[in-house]
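hey team, just a heads up i'm posting the complex here instead of the shared drive bc the drive is being weird again. everything in one block, sequence lines first with there labels, then the predicted structure for the whole assembly after. its three chains so it's a bit long, scroll down
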Amino acid sequence: MADKVLMKGNEAIAEAAIVAGCRHYFGYPITPQTEIAAYMAKRMPKIGGCFLQAESEIAAINMVYGVASTGLRVMTSSSSPGISLKGEGLSYLAGADLPSLVVNVQRGGPGLGGIQPSQSDYFQATKGGAHGDFHMIVLAPASVQEMADLTVHGFDLADKYRMTSMILADGTMGQMMEPVSLDLEVKPMPEKPWATTGTKLQRKHNITNSLSLDPEELEMLNFKRYERYKVIEENEVMYEEYMMEDAEICIAAFGIASRVAKNAITEARKMGIKVGLIRPITLWPFPTAPFKAAADKVHTFISVELSMGQMIEDVRLATECRRPVKLVNRAGGMIPSPEQILEAIKEANKNGGAN
Amino acid sequence: MAKLTFKTDNCKGCGLCVDACPKKVLALAKEKINKKGHHPVEAVNEDACIGCAFCATMCPDCIIKIEK
Amino acid sequence: MVVFDKPHALNDIPMHYCPGCTHGIIHRLVAECLDELGIEGQTIGIAPVGCSVLAYNYFNCDMIEAAHGRAPAIATGVTRADPENHIVFTYQGDGDLASIGMAETVHAAARNENITVIFVNNAIYGMTGGQMAPTSLPGQVTQTSPYGRDTNHCGFPIKVCEMLSELDGPEYLERVAVNNVKNVKNAKKAIKKAFENQINKKGFSLVEVISSCPTNWGMTPQKALEWVADKMIPYYPLGVYKDRSAGIVKGEVKND
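-- predicted structure starts here --
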């Protein structure tokens, strides 16, 4: 096993990006993700890369658009209010089919909100995030190691499918310190014949563009993009099942919420309650199949979230509302406690699926 | 004397070339209409052309080629 | 001997601009400079949102279409992707550069990004049908200033070259016009110098080109060029506003 180092989640993302071959980072300071920018500011000049503090999140995402157009790996990071500002750029990146990696270390909202951890950008991340029909691949790490692993994986997927991968973390994951191995497997980058790097007078000019004034052409581009999304839904879903073999109650939780949920599950199991966890790692594509299968076995689902209940809608869709789906949540920067989750488990166990 | 060639179908008949010519070589066609529906420029006095390229300098659509 | 022909860097697609619109002249000047400097093959152009949104179709070099106002940020990314080899220009109108994209413009200039900005100022929003621009003149009638631009109500035009000349960052700022042959020739010199600056890694060059919009000004192409001379140029004086290498710093406008 490779040597492990003790790192903050935000730093693990930054170093993993460098391992993945990313040499361009653009960002704007915002709590609680600024360690990523600070880390890049230190590291990039030492390895011939480029760190640039942009004048705004809007400028940063457009600098990303510029580098992505030339075919190089590039990233930006921010936290919730900053991601809203990047929304315009995310839509243009999707429209121009450009690969990029965007990190959202979420904090409580709406508006300026707070600076404590949150998962309330789930809708924004998984349902598009800006105008037009599009998706991003959304990856939800639940450990510092996964912050690193999913960053590399995110770059690979972005290049493979020519789209944005978003790391949807939260303030806790960003600030948490854990041992992490940076011996990460990086896939070779695909050829990018579409890149705008100069024609060298050897080929017709390439155009990076999201404008199509002909509605039939624009419709066709949307159809094609969604065919690609279908391939992703079939091939790239990631999730973890925990104690689901004999489970009668299924908890749905991602990121920090899944870690708290595991504590509650351990306690509940001691009491003889058969409860398990499905932890989506890709939030888009959502792991529909395991939830659908679980609906045949369990009598109740419990969605544990640091929001007013957003992922719960995807759990209901996945299970086709065949079982009750309860919500255990805190919002505004608060985190559900194991006790709160345990109470909900006990309640569900008592009712046995009756509403 | 210089030789003028026009991409007539790209002409929008704006007349900026006509005004730019110091020798009054050019005029917009009175009858003829091009594919775009404009009265295109034509040389009405080509013998007077000195090849100064003022017309081409002011043409927004790059339709004039000049050879000497 | 060919005295004049279409430059190689401009392709054969007919341009969509209105009759007499001077965008076509400015496109040609940029393309001529790419030809003469032998840089078409390493150039990446960035088109704006506005009338020249389709510029990406007309240049033979690689092109990127930007979100409204964001071209200088995208150009920043492109130049930093390969500082040794990439030549990058943005082509932007007044709404794009001086309204929605002002922050991107100012900061790219302040960083002295090694890019060339072609700023076409025709004092109106053309593509959307003639609304007031940040550079519309006091009293100018537009669709959204139907009684004339009232400076008490909506403020004064922005003089981009003057404003940017206050910054220490930019290498070169010049305002030119394309209303007659002499001015077009001067405009070409300025654009060429801007690209030469970039080739020589001198940094940010912006050429503001005073241009016309016959359609939305409601004039013939000829009258529109007269309006440039009579109204626009007096408000936006032509000249070099900054040329660090030549020792011209802020406030020392050098006219020909």
